[in-house]
Fold this sequence. Notes:
The protein is α/β, with parallel strands linked by helices. It has helices at residues 17-28, 50-60, 75-85, 105-114, 132-148, 165-172, 181-188, 211-225, 228-256, 264-297, and strands at 2-10, 35-43, 64-68, 90-93, 119-124, 157-164, 192-197. The chain has a seven-stranded mixed beta sheet with strand order 3-2-1-4-6-5-7, sandwiched between helices. Magnesium ion (MG) is lined by residues 95, 97, 99, 202, 207.
Amino acid sequence: MKSVTLIVPCYNEADVLTMLLKELTRVTMPLSGQYCFKFLFVNDGSSDATLDIVKSFAERSDAIQYISFSRNFGKEAAMLAGMKYADSDFIGLIDADLQHSPDLIPEMLQAVDSEGYDVAAACRTDRVGESKLKSMLSAQFYKVINRVSEIRINDNAQDFRIMRRKVVDAILSMPESIRFSKGIFSWVGFRVKWFPHENRERAAGETKWSIKKLAKYAIDGILGYTSSPLRLPLYLGVVSCFAACILALYGLIRFCMPTADFPMYALLLAAILFMSGIVLCCVGLIGEYLARVYTETKRRPPFIISESNINNIRVDHQKG
Length: 320
Ligand code: UDP
Ligand code: MG
């Protein structure tokens, strides 16, 4: 029988956990003849009764696993820990607050198990239950990241997904510690089936994302997937040197004319522009090296194999 682990990152979700487990059990029960389900709750340093509730679940059922952090490390860390310690053939991520409808799970499982997809991911069709400001900022963020970085992120993509083991192994092969999962999911590739999904209000409790946390998330996302800001001084420097040459040329032409006046200010300005252009180019050059060092320090794998018929390449753990 194939196994499925559903990872639930939890930060102060005491009000909603019982409801969530009830829903998850309702949806997965009819499939229990085909799959062995496990629910892995990752308590991200909650200060409410989240851990006690999760422990009480675990006492009642072997299917419940938990990991509890020493403090709040953020949802990214909670998802990473879950993926690292989940040992199933299929691994899913679902929020605790029931904004991700568990009713999609059977269809998602079918997509990865029998339709040949590697990932079944939910994408929202609307942004009900989200503030106008958050929706607007989020739309702008995806516009910027899709323009400046090498990856393409579906701006409606959610973290709610079920993946084959090999996809999770690929995600775990990216050792960077500043993690931006939406970027990582897109970076690793694989065949994704999208499941349009209406956004729902939280079942209970409140969102854990403050504007400050969201801003940090956005900056991590953009800086993690592009080094173009480091290249900016080089472009500015080239423009500045070019402008200096034009000004100098203008001065020279005026000097060669019969009236032969020499515009001192143009020469001065050209010299200043040229020197600052050179300085900017040097900074840009350092930026180029820094960009390379930055890329290397992330130690991302140079490629990810999806499948192969060579024996010692065992990317798909479900085949064995
Ligand atoms: N979460 C977490 N650590 C955090 C913030 C959030 O584990 O520091 C979990 C939270 O418990 C929930 C999921 O991440 O299961 C999504 O959080 P939330 O619903 O607050 O985000 P939103 O849906 O508002 O984007
Ligand atoms: Mg939520």
